[in-house]
Amino acid sequence: MERVHKVRLEVDYNQVAVFSSGLANPFNDWEERHVGQGFAWRPESVSFRTLESGPHLIDVVITEHADALGPGVIRAVEVPFEVPHNGRIEIAASPNRLNSDSRRENTF
Q1: β-strand 39-42 against 45-49: which pairing, if any?
Q2: What is the helix (H) or strand (E) element at residue 103, kind and residue range?
C-alpha cells in the first residue's frame, strides 16, 4: 500500500531532514563529502540538500518499494533510510522551526 503526503516547508539552510519521530537530535552534521553527494545520513535520520532556500512543496511517498522515476522528476536521491518499527517519521527543514506544532503537522 502506498501513501502520499504533500508537505509545505520553509527551508532556511538548504536542507530537509527525514527522521524517526521523537529523535532527540534529528539533524545531521554536514561534511564536504555530504555536500557533494547531496545528503547526510545516519541511522534514523537523513538530511537532503536542497537546491535553494525558501518555500518548498515536498511529496512524501511511503511505500514498500519505490517505482521507476517518471520523466518529470527534476532530482532524486536514494538513501539507506528505514522507517522505524513504530512507523512514525517526521520531516523538518530547520532546527529553529522544530516545535510541537510543526512536529504534529509533519509526522506520518
Answers
A1: antiparallel
A2: helix 100-105
Specify the 3-state DSSP secondary structure of 84: coil
Which residues have CB under 8 Å from 6's CB, separation 6+? 57, 58, 59, 60
Report yes or no: 19 and 26 within 8 Å, Cβ to Cβ.
yes
Containing 56, the helix (H) or strand (E) segment is strand 54-62
Quote the pTM value.
Answer: 0.77
* Whole-angstrom Cα Rg for the chain: 13
Task: List pLDDT tens digits, range 61-78.
Answer: 777 767 788 888 887 777
Q: Which of 100, 87, 81, 70 is nearest to 17 (CA)?
A: 81
- The amino acid that residue 40 corresponds to is A
Phi, psi of 91 (to 5 degrees): -130, 130
The DSSP output letter for 86 is: T
Phi/psi at 27 (5° precision): -90, 140
- Torsion sign over Cα 20, 53, 10, 13: positive
